[in-house]
Amino acid sequence: MTIMWEVTILGIELFDLFYNFFIYCFLGWVYESTYVSLKQRQWVNRGFLNGPVIPIYGCVATLLYLAFFNEDMISVTERGDIQSILIIFFAGLLLASLFEFVTSWLMEKLFHAKWWDYSNIPLNIQGRICLPVSIFWGFLSVVMAEFIQPRMTKLIDRIPRKAGEIGGIAILAIFLADLVSTVAATLQLDKKLSNMHRIREELLESLDRLKLYETREELKAKLAENPLYEYFGNKRSEYEQNVEKWLDKHKAYTEKREEERAHIKEEFREKMELFYAKYKEQKSNRFNRYVYKRIFKAFPHMRMNRREESFAALRERIRNDWKYRTDKNASSGQERNDDTNAKQK
Fold first, then answer.
1. How far is Cα 104 from Cα 333, in angstroms, rounded to an integer?
2. Tens of pLDDT, residues 63-90
3. How far apart are CA 342 and CA 334, in angstroms?
């Protein structure tokens, strides 16, 4: 174990790189969570992972650490003149922008979602990076290299070696568990949206054949007005009324009219029950619901490249589900307090 931690990269031990990475991941999480929470006026656990880390900050800071604090380049940061500051500024700007662009592209390819979008900011590239944010990365790199990193190095040097090695294994295990579980849940989100989209299209086709609405666009508008689970659960009587209206328009039925009417209503009811059952199968487990709720809150402008309607419906469904749970827990707590007060009296 000790031998592993003593491996060096450009003269810097893996032990130092490891803690450097995770401390900057944590500092990045503190900064982003605080900024977004103040902006939204509510607590937001920012970042892709559930834990208090944002790896992009740790990656960029550690790459800069390797670039400017190795044995050959440490003199650049020690000089502190305009030339060295400009070198660090542009190196950080380019490195962080490239890393942010690649991260955005990979996450979009993997999860079929756009997690952040700078399209409304001038001088952006595909909405993945933009000049104002890149300049911010440059300034942050200068602050990191000139002010934070020297103190960070001293802080890491104070970590007891044995305890640090054991703690490092524990931190890595927790980080990997968080990463694997979050990636798995997010991949299931894409599969879930695919199933919901398919169910939605099957419903549209079935109702379109019954001509319950004038046009398919009108039916889509109805679906857009109500989340699909409400559309199934609360609108069945409306459907049956529409079936009656549709049947009344067709006066060509003879003595079999009542049989036809009953048959069509029964067929419609069976289809609705089938679609409702399929839709309920897409319900997420508790952990996945927590992950989705946190991600939707952390990335309010997140967009799916496909199945945007199903994504909007799922987001609304999870938001309402958690609001219901919160209200229910608050109500239960109030009832317990009332019972306690009654007993005390």
1. 43
2. 888 888 876 666 667 777 788 888 889 9
3. 12
7 three-state secondary structure: coil
Tell me, what's the pLDDT at 319? 67
CA geometry: angle 126, 127, 133, nearest 5 deg: 125
Give the pTM: 0.73
DSSP-assigned states of every residue in 49-89: SSSS--HHHHHHHHHHHHHHSSTTTHHHHHH-SHHHHHHHH
Q: Report pLDDT for 282.
A: 60
Per DSSP, helices labelled H in 250-307 are 257-280, 286-298
Neighbouring residues of 66: CB distance < 8 A, sequence distance ≥ 6: 9, 10, 12, 17
Q: Which of 135, 105, 141 is nearest to 121 (CA)?
A: 135
Max Cα distance, the chain (Å): 99
Indicate if the alpha-carbon torsion angle 327, 333, 334, 339 is positive or negative.
Answer: positive
Q: 320 or 194: whose pLDDT is higher?
A: 194
pLDDT digits (tens, 9 = 90+) for 136-167: 999 998 988 888 888 898 999 999 999 999 99
3-state secondary structure of 334: helix
Helix (H/G/I), strand (E/B), else coil: 341 = helix
- Is the separation of the CB atoms in 310 and 197 below 8 Å? yes
Say how far apart CA 95 and CA 64 lie, in whole Å.
Answer: 8
Closest C-alpha to 171, from 6, 49, 71, 39: 49
